[in-house]
Amino acid sequence: MKDSENRIFTIPNILDFYRILVAPVIMWSIVNNHNRLTLILLVTAFSTDLIDGYIARKFHQITKLGKTLDPVADKFLFGFVILGVCFRNNFRFWSFFLGMLISVYFIGFLWIYPIFLKKGLKVNFFGKTCVFINSFVLFFLVFYPNKWMLIIFTVLLIMPQLVYLFQVFRILKKEKKEKKLE
Fold first, then answer.
1. How many domains does the structure of the chain reveal?
2. How far is C-alpha 128 from the geometric centre of its chain's CA atoms?
3. Could you tell me the CATH number of the domain that includes residue 162?
4. Digit-coded pLDDT (tens) for 164-182
5. Would you place residue 107 in the very low, low, confident or very high pLDDT band (cuts 50, 70, 90)?
6. Pairing with 50, which of 3, 18, 132, 133 sits 20 to 30 Å away (CA)?
């Protein structure tokens, strides 16, 4: 492995750290109806998500940490924003349901993602598209909350994870079968 892949303080990683750190602040600003601050923070957070990968590829700053940090930052941001929306709008069922879903989702991610990387799998177009669309769904949920948008968000959150989960299980099953043949 190249030394450059082991770097920590690269521009993309700093942008990912920013998203992780700003996520609770965004939740606080949503819950307390600080709409202007929320707008500014959401735009900057979503913008960092759009440009970090580009910067990493363009300037050869792809790192081991960044491969994990970027999706973790997405999950932090999505989780805190959606919970802020649910708390502010008194969506009690959704607050509980999404809180539990995000917990299971994050734990599952921490279990599956290292296997995913180790097997050489990469984030696919479908997953990136769902994250991109969900960024807009979240943005609209913050300022125009309704339960249908919550449903769309939830479906778009779960679908790519199921695809990745099936990919990992298929590879693990294939490896198990190959070991039996040896």
1. 1
2. 10
3. 1.20.120
4. 778 878 888 888 888 887 7
5. low
6. 3
